[in-house]
UniProtKB/TrEMBL annotation:
Gene3D superfamilies: Dipeptide-binding Protein, Domain 3, Glycine betaine-binding periplasmic protein, domain 2, Periplasmic binding protein-like II. Residues 28-307 form the ABC-type glycine betaine transport system substrate-binding domain. This is Glycine betaine ABC transporter substrate-binding protein. Residues 1-26 form the signal peptide. SUPFAM superfamilies: Periplasmic binding protein-like II.
Amino acid sequence: MKTTLISVSVALAAAFASVGAVSADAADLVISMPNWPSGQATANILKVAIAKEYKLDAEVRELGTLTAFNGLESGDVDINPEVWRPNLDSLIEKYVNEKHVVEVAARGIDAWQGLCATPDAVAAGIKDIADLSDPAKTALLDTDGDGRGELWIGAPTWLSTGIERVRANSYGYAKNLTLVEAEEEVGMAAVDAAVATGRPMVFACYAPHHVFELHNIVRLTEPPYVAAKWKIMPASDPTWISDSSASVAWPAASFHIAYATAFAKKHADVASFLEKVDFTPEEITHMTYALQVERQPPLEFAKQWVDSHASRIDGWAKP
C-alpha cells in the first residue's frame, strides 16, 4: 500500500509538472502591464495587434517597473509598453546603454508632469507651487481634521512618486503637508469627490490623462526646469530620495515602448512593428477615459480599438 501511494504521488506530481510546463510554454511572448490606465490599454492593444499581424500569443502580466526591466534582461519579459522619461532614465542608462539588453523605441509620446489644483483650490488662492509653503492655504486641503493638508503624490510603485517626494522636500512644502501614496484609482476618486463637493484639493498630475476631460483642473505654476537644480539619484540607491534635490518644474517628458534586445533578434519583424507604433496624446487620453471612467475591461477595449484601426495597424506591420 505504501508503495502504491508513493507511485500515485509521483504520478500526480509528474502530471502537475506537465500541466505547469504547458502553461509556461503557452504564450509566445510576455508583455508587462503597468498599474495605470494608459499602460493597461496599450499593453493589451499590443497583445491583440501582434496576434493579428504575427500570429503570436502574448501573455499580459501586471508588473512593477523595476521587475519589468529585470524581466527584460532575464528573458521573462519581452515588451514594456510605457517607459516614461526622464523618470526612468537611470534604468535606461543601466539596461540600454550599459548592459545593452533593452531597446527603447525612438518614437515617443509627448507628456508632462507636475501638480494640479481643483477649481476650488484655485479659488482659495492656491495657484503656484509657492502657495503650498503657506500653512494657512494648505490647511484648506485638510480632510482628516488634523489641521494639516494632504497631497496625493502618486502610487507607491511609481518612480515619479519618489520624485514628487523629493520635490516636496526641496521646495519645503513637505513640512506642512502630508504626502499620500495610493493607487491611481484611489487618487482619481478623491479628485472626483473633491470637485463634486467643492472641496479644495491639490494632487500629482500628468498628461495625457482623462482627468482634464472630466474637470476644470489647473496645473500649478512653478519655476521652470533648470538642469543644475534637478539632481535625481538612481532609484537603486536605498537613500536616493534623501540624496536627491529638485526645486524646479519637471523637465519635458515622454513615454516609449521598450523591448528586450534578445527578443528583437528573435523577432526582428515585431521589433520593427513596435518602432512604428504612433499613438497620439489624444488617443492616450481616450484610452484612460475608457478604462477609468467607462470601466471598460482593458482586453475588450483593446479588441475594439484594433478592429477600428485595422488599416493603421497593418501599416505598422509593413516592412
